[in-house]
Amino acid sequence: MANEDYWGDGPYLDGITFKWFESKATAIASYINGDIQVLFDSDLDIYKEVLPSLHEADAEQVLSKTPNNIFYIWMDGNDENSPFHDVRVRQAFCHAIDTDAIVNDLFEGFRRKTTNQPSYEGSIYYNDEIVGYGYDPEKAKQLLDEAGYPDGFSYTIQCRNGTPYDAYVPAVQAYAAAVGINLEVNYLEGTAFNAVMYDSFAGTLFTNPASFAPNEFGRMRERFSKGNIESFGYKDIYFSDKYFDYFEQAKNQGMAEEAARYYQLAMKEAIDTDCSFMVLYADHSCTMKYHFVEDSGVDVAPNNQWFPNAVKFVE
Q1: What is the rounded distance in angstroms from the CA atom of residue 234 to the CA atom of residue 220?
Q2: Mind listing the pLDDT tens digit for each residue in 219-258?
Q3: CB 276 within 8 A of CB 238
Q4: Alpha-carbon torsion, ordered 100, 103, 189, 152, to 10 deg
Q5: CATH topology (fold) of 1-315
Q6: How many contiguous H segments (helices) and E segments (strands) does the chain have?
Q7: Mean of pLDDT values over 168-172
């Protein structure tokens, strides 16, 4: 409710009511009927169901600027017995996967964006000098041949059971097979998944999301600084001494802006030089709203970080 005793100009609205729904169907019906005007965590199925009943302007989809999560494939480059110990194999794998097609065809471009790094455009940590690895299956085959795998090889990829893994992992599997990397998928339930993530995934690939927003450097420091890396299965990933040097310099800076450049250099080293991991896509919060909802702030932060600091309605 509005704070009538607020010392400054009062809020535009009398109040904001949050409603929680036990089922998606009930939430959709309430939105179509106009009982609610903003629907958090909208997805493609909701959009397709709402659109025939409402004017398109009242089914506007707003993506958060900051992603919820970024999805990765982690490669066990630190395992000397793994084919992925060879940087050319890691590069080949990245060139083999068409991330644009996964985002735009498989997910129909809904709430997901391609990115080549653990950041997003507009962030001070985003490095536009990072090249990454575009889809190039012929280059992938060439790199595998140079690495001593002209006929490819077989390997295992581990992931959590359920959505969205059951959508994108088979696509990754098919792209990899096209260049000779035959992946067996091992779907894991929660406890087994966490055991792999926090212990070791050596001898396999591993895919999961990791949130690096709204403070990418703080989250990266939790996972990938030299002192913390042994706490996660990320110790199986290859990171060079140069990467760690840049990262330590970033940690020693007093201000975020000062740390940003060293962080950018560390990410360029990890991605363009060492190909330490593969970035698949960024997953953003998607909010559906009526046309008269303005300045809601849902385009700034993920839904779980939203607060009603600037909401108003217009005729």
Answers
A1: 11
A2: 777 778 887 777 666 889 999 999 999 999 998 888 888 8
A3: yes
A4: -20
A5: Dipeptide-binding Protein; domain 3 (3.10.105)
A6: 10, 9
A7: 96
